[in-house]
């Protein structure tokens, strides 16, 4: 199996930062392309929250997502030689479904993502993005634990 495209899911957690480091190290070693994907859910904040209309909340979420992707790209170590740079995907919707969809469309050979490590009970009650991706992804998944 040849890993030519590695998709790394990022958010604003330290778990995502660690997953990104591992994903970039792996991509560098394999001379693979890297894609960073960030998903925001505009329905997570009710319309009118904090006095902003729904379209403004979505716009603010997009701007924050772009800022976050730029931060991850800039945090890469100098001299990282990736064949075609870094692809960035900013998606709106449910995290797991969006990550899976990007992996399919881009043709990812692997997804790298962090786990928040909430445990079985909290994972059942709140849902788990990493669990959903593991069950439905079109390619292998590398899930980094929260304590590495």
If you had to describe this structure to a student in words, what would you say it looks like?
This protein has helices at residues 14-30, 54-74, 95-106, 119-126, 129-136; strands spanning 5-9, 33-40, 86-92, 110-114, 141-144. 30% of the residues are buried. Helix content is 45%, strand content 20%. The model is unreliable at 121-126 (pLDDT under 50). The chain is built from 5 helices and 5 strands; from the N terminus they run E-H-E-H-E-H-E-H-H-E. Strands 3-2-1-4-5 form a 5-stranded parallel β-sheet, with helices on both faces. The radius of gyration is 15 Å and the shape is globular. It has one domain (11-144): HUPs (Rossmann fold). The two termini are 26 Å apart. By secondary structure, it is α/β, with parallel strands linked by helices.
Summed up, the helix count is: 5
Mean pLDDT: 81
Question: What distance separates the N and C termini?
Answer: 26 Å
> In the CATH hierarchy, what is the superfamily?
HUPs
- Level-2 CATH architecture: 3-Layer(aba) Sandwich
Strand order of the largest sheet: 3-2-1-4-5
Uncertain segments: 121-126
Helix content range of the residues, please?
A: 40-55%
Topology order in helix (H) and strand (E) letters: EHEHEHEHHE
Radius of gyration using CA atoms only: 15 Å
* 3D shape: globular
CATH class: Alpha Beta
